[in-house]
Amino acid sequence: MTGRLAVRDLPLPGLKRVERQRLGDHRGFLSRLFCAETLEAAGWRKPLAQINQTLTRERGTVRGLHYQKPPAAEIKLVMCLKGAIWDVAVDVRRGSSTFLHHHGEILSEENGYALLIPEGFAHGFQALTADVELLYCHSAPHAPDLEAGLNVADPRLALPWPLPVTGLSVRDAGQALLTPDFEGVVL
Ligand SMILES: Cc1cn([C@H]2C[C@H](O)[C@@H](COP(=O)(O)OP(=O)(O)O[C@H]3O[C@H](C)C(=O)[C@H](O)[C@H]3O)O2)c(=O)[nH]c1=O
User: I need a surface site. Which of 81, 106, 110, 111 has the fewest CB within 10 A?
Assistant: First the structure.
């Protein structure tokens, strides 16, 4: 456990779980959310460009699946500070041995887990409780013109959402299904 963040390998190459250790005392706790030194060793070798917060009010709501295309491809560190989510990353790296494979797991206020999602992964989550709050660290600025997405109900992905999918944004509900010629992104 170096510097309060433990990094674990996951089945998709480059995808990591980052486990936060809380330092508690009679007042409460301190928890480190980001550490450039620890995360550089885990593959974050870019600046910290932007940090976002989202609040998702309704249990069952799904946000995603989003990624930014090169040259705005980004590393994300996603953590759930309030409530619990099922978080999922899908490999869209052209030529990857795990192309279009997904990894999903629960991130929560309680378990203190985050996902470090490399460039070339689409990201999404489902709120498992009401009023979930997420914090995102991004290695590249928001680039709306280079945003892309996958459909959360795409049969080619067959994502095992824990709850019935609700609350999609108009954009997310309208994401096109993958076509047979989809080759992913070249990083
Ligand atoms: C991502 C982003 C969005 N915005 C603006 C654009 C829209 O006017 C508004 C909501 O954007 P959007 O509906 O894309 O937000 P989400 O669907 O919650 O996307 C988020 O959830 C999925 C799961 C992700 O992985 C994205 O990285 C994350 O941003 O915020 C910004 O101003 N900056 C940003 O970095």
Answer: 110
